[in-house]
Amino acid sequence: MSPARRPRLPRSNQGKNDTGTKPAADTPASSETGEPATVRVNDPSKVRVVPVEDSSRAEPDTAETTPDASTKNAASRAEGGEGTRTDRSSHPDPEENVAGDKADQDNIVAFPGRRAVRGRTAGTSSAASSSSGGDSHEKPRRSRRRKVLVSLGVFVVAAVLFLGIVFFSPLLATQKVTIEGANLTDKASLQKSLDSLKGKPLTRVTTKDVESKVGDDIAVQNVSIEAHPPHELVVTIHERAPVAVVKSGDQYILVDKDGVAIGSKKSVEEAGVPLLDGGPDAVKSDAFESAVQALQTLPRSLLNQLNKVDAESSNNIQLDMKDGSKVKWGTGEDSDYKAEVLNSLVQGLKDSGGASVYDVSSPDRPVTK
């Protein structure tokens, strides 16, 4: 008689014990209670039931309990599958994870259409967001650029209009030329020359233009101009200032501080400056410079009282006053200080009738007689 086949009982998740071996095939799930297992079969005489406590110590009867090869293999496959699934679920295998990742990669490679669509969608959304972000930044930038360009254009137009009005418009054309400071120069002839500037815009009249009209008048040292809009041009003549006159024949030649002859008068009184002894050659001597230093430092009140300057040498300058008194000046050094001392002496002695001699050659120790 062939051995009876035992029915396969349901297994719990504990497919393996602590040692890793499979439990006995004939151990029922209800053995945990310690009670004998109850199995319902068609022919009870063919099955021997062993209690659980005995089955753990004794080997089962191979003649009666060992199933045939096909049954054993099926049970092993079933148990192996359940155990494998249980172990894999409770203890994941790293190789399986790698295999799963590889499978995912394979899936990605296997479905390029879906990946490409997803990539294009992401790229499109990124590009759209980038475009929207760029537009949001670009709009204020364009607005600022437009404002700058508009402001620049307005400025350029205003500048062109201003330059056109100032430099080329007849609104600021010269219509009147006023001459000031012309005492030694022929004012009538100078006015006639400068009237040729009429009609020219005030902003375009330069100092060189006026100098060319004045010409090489020896009495004119330099000129300056000033525009009085809308139509008046003021020309100031800076003439050489005469410091003395020298007698040449019956004429009295006016000379400035540099010894330049700037005019002539018929008398000393008409010239309004003191007479320098020595004739025209006096301006070429070394004493002339010392005499000029003395004359330039004297206040106007003393110059009006001065009649003649005697410059025998640079160390011996003497001034002759109109009231007959004399001033011993000495050298041209400390001329400013000497002029102050002399003025104090004259003013101090005015009430007492003055002095006949004022010696200021040593200004710290002046002497009067």
UniProtKB/TrEMBL annotation:
Biological-process GO terms, alphabetical: cell division
* The name this protein goes by in its record: FtsQ-type POTRA domain-containing protein
Membrane-spanning ranges: 148-168
Entry annotated with the keyword Transmembrane helix: yes
Q: Name one Pfam family in it.
A: FtsQ_DivIB_C
The cellular component terms of Gene Ontology attached to this UniProt record, alphabetical and capped at eight, are: plasma membrane
Renumbered to this chain, the Polar residues biased-composition regions fall at 11-20, 63-74
Q: Known PANTHER family for this protein?
A: CELL DIVISION PROTEIN DIVIB, CELL DIVISION PROTEIN FTSQ
Q: Where is the Cell division protein FtsQ/DivIB C-terminal domain?
A: 244-350
In terms of InterPro entries, this protein maps to: Cell_div_FtsQ/DivIB_C (IPR005548), FtsQ_DivIB (IPR050487), POTRA_FtsQ_type (IPR013685)
| Region: Disordered, residue numbers | 1-144
Question: Which residues lie in Low complexity bias regions?
Answer: 119-134
Tell me which species this is from: Rothia koreensis
Q: Which residues form the POTRA domain?
A: 175-240
Q: From start to end residue, where is composition biased (Basic and acidic residues)? A: 79-105
This protein's UniProt keywords? Cell cycle, Cell division, Cell membrane, Membrane, Transmembrane, Transmembrane helix
